[in-house]
Every structure is written in structure tokens, then in C-alpha cells.
Amino acid sequence: MKSYPIELGGKTRNLRYGFNAFVAFEEATGDSIMNIGGTVTIKMLRALIWAGLRWEDKNLTVDAVGDMVDRYMEEGGDLETLMKSVTTAIEQSGLVKKGKVKDEPGE
Hints:
mainly alpha
């Protein structure tokens, strides 16, 4: 399974989405990964990043990911670029068809 590198929390991390990552996302949010083609909320984006990074760090928390995103933003990052990285990583998984995930965060 492919991973997708992103700079987050002051270091390079690797997003990877397999079946367990999608289940973790669904358990954390109550939203189905199959229904995220519409508006992606900030809560969903944070959970998507968390689920995609858990394979590298099983102790990673959703709040810690929020802190990483804060640091990313303070260092000049933007949510649109971050969401595009998440979208690319999800599409690489092959579990969600290309174009099914909206690549801009909503509210």
C-alpha cells in the first residue's frame, strides 16, 4: 500500500489509507468514508489526517493532529493544500474511486 508524504508537525509524515484507517475514521466521526464526496468539515479533515497517520504511530490522538495542523498553518500552510494531499493519499489507496473525495474543506 502506498503512502503519501506530507510536512506536518515539524517533520515529514506519511499518510496511508487502508481498510483499518477508513474504519478508524468512521468510528471517530460517525461519517462514512463512502459519503465524503460532499462538504468536508474541519472535524472530518482532522479525523482523516489522524486515520491516515495512525499506521506510523498507534498512540497518535486526534487532538495531537489538531496541534500539528495548527503548527502547519503557523508555518504558512493552508487547508486547501493539506486537503489535496489527503485526497491524493486516499485515491492512492484504491479503496475510494478518484474524484469521490472533495479536495476543499468546507465549514
